[in-house]
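Hi there. Long-time user, first ticket. I'm pasting a complex I've been working with (about 718 residues overall). I'd like to know whether the download I got is complete or cut off, because the file seemed smaller than I expected. Thanks.
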Amino acid sequence: MKKNLKNAPASTSPPAKATIADVARTAGVSKATVSRFLNHRDTLLSKDIATRVEVAIAALAYSPSPMAQALKRGRSKLIGLVVADVSNPFSVALLRGAEKACQQAGYLIMLFNLADDDAREQEAIETLSAYQVEGFILNTLGHDGGAAATAIRHGKPVVLIDRRHHDLQVDFVSLDNTGAMRLAIDHLVERGFSNMLYVTDPIKGVSTREERESAFHRWILNQQSSDSKIVGRTLECPSDKAEQLDEGLRALHASAPRGQAAVVTSNAVTSLRVVASMARLKLRLGMDIGLVGIDETDWAPYVGPGLSTIAQPTGELGRIAANSLIERLKGQTPPPRQILLSGELISRGSSRSDAPSAN
Amino acid sequence: MKKNLKNAPASTSPPAKATIADVARTAGVSKATVSRFLNHRDTLLSKDIATRVEVAIAALAYSPSPMAQALKRGRSKLIGLVVADVSNPFSVALLRGAEKACQQAGYLIMLFNLADDDAREQEAIETLSAYQVEGFILNTLGHDGGAAATAIRHGKPVVLIDRRHHDLQVDFVSLDNTGAMRLAIDHLVERGFSNMLYVTDPIKGVSTREERESAFHRWILNQQSSDSKIVGRTLECPSDKAEQLDEGLRALHASAPRGQAAVVTSNAVTSLRVVASMARLKLRLGMDIGLVGIDETDWAPYVGPGLSTIAQPTGELGRIAANSLIERLKGQTPPPRQILLSGELISRGSSRSDAPSAN
DNA sequence: TTGTAAGCGTTATCAA
DNA sequence: TTGATAACGCTTACAA
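Hi, the file is complete. Here it is re-exported in full:
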């Protein structure tokens, strides 16, 4: 009988983690009792037996196998987090926020990184579902709501971060894009800039990009009513078309007197692309072209004269997303919510037309 | 009987993923046969039955539950990756490399982020073990080899990245720290710098830090033999002691004529701290103090006059670590290996004493 | 070549 | 209040 092996000197193999059966045996009770002790400590329990079980558990350093529990319960204490690209600092900050919230609630995050490959969305959902994750936090490209829809079809609750899908009745957590953009525009105007260019990844129906772009124009219009000189255009520029960006910036610089041209970027990666382009064009941040970018990063203060940014409360976004999900996992079913968090302007040299060069 | 429910209209609940039993039933065979079809397609299989099973699987869109498989086999197709801090770009690059390799081999990575809290090391190992990960890739602080040792005690193979533990007989993958440091020193000397300061996180017995620091001094000594003017000191500086760093840099700058003082940093985070400190001191990168930092990043080209760096092949490190592990999971047991990869010098303005300010 | 049945580590239903 | 026992979805001897 296998069982006896457990008491043998056991050669050099690992001490074979204790199971509920082991605990039951050494406590002299049934498995059911041990399980009850674990899951229904409050109800049904004679003091005597309870302590015997407790002692046995401690002695064997027993802890239940989440895999077995998952199999039996159909729940796994696992939450799936799908991100478009871990290389993006935004995703990492999200992860950290979500992780913290999950940890407190006893959940573990399974991360699936799309590595910017949309095609893997379905795969991500399927894979994570197979591992019995109880719900999803999605921050994917999601040109359609496909991934989210699949998740829902699997019967798992979903929270969307940053990318909205209006046809899906799910929780949605995001930066208040409209407000954030207003912060950027108003700040630039106040600093004397009047000729603005919004540089974004190709919009392609991604909600965040749409919202930011339309907000950009709305606030430009708004400013125009008090100063007709103020104008704004959009440049959609894929990341592999550096020349296109160069051309856009060159034109911007040429078309506006010194101190009037400014760029607003849609995220940290785009900001860096603009910085790179300006370096190629030998244009100076702030002095030649102003810049405010969405997303704060560690390095923003030290690039050129310092990058002015709209900081997203990224960790918060992750935390709130996780908590909303966990709430639903606990059985609550509030109507789908939209939670928008405000951004914060951090003003640095790149939005001062008289900015000194740093270092 | 529960089973019958499956054929009922099933209200609005999810379509309840097909199980092996469902497949067996619709194919008119036993579960064992389906399992065989899945796992031993080559051997034992009558053409007729094989196709019936195949059809049924397709029809039901069946795929086996990894959880159940894990429970039965004791193997899960999961690999645990423990990183000290996901915020560190190094960790992310690692993750991406490892992820890719794992994906190709059909493994999934479970990430556990210590968030720089050493105390959670054991927890990480225990948690991941409980989820039946088959092996570990560890990039932790690991002041002792505790975590790795625990993993090994659990009987799971381990690969260490970047942090070595000599007493542990496991695979180890890392940058060739000695070679990397030589690249840095020789480059700085060639550029005319002679008074060097190595800025590092507190060494505290972390192998990488020790190796880099001692290599720093070795190559300084080596250069000294041809030019006695060349000197080097170490500054161990915890991240919450900015004044200490300021003081160190001030002293360095004061003690050396223009164009002679240079700093070497131990990683990207430290580089940024040095950049911040210099900004506070109003010192110019390159001109006042030279800088070469280990770790290349997206933003390195655009900070000040551009940061000179020693780029680690980070993705490669992750890939190799994953592959080594997978090899062992497949049953091979080569003796423990050390794999050291070379760094690459990327020279920018921060190591030119006549560097122009950027932007 | 296929099927039967036991068992992986749990939880939950039912008796006792 | 406790203990058998049957699942959960899968793999694998062992029989047929």
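A couple of notes from our side: Residues 2, 19-21, 31-32, 35-36, 38-39, 64-65, 67-73 of chain B lie near DNA strand D (CB under 10 Å from a C1'). DSSP finds 13 helices and twelve strands in chain B.
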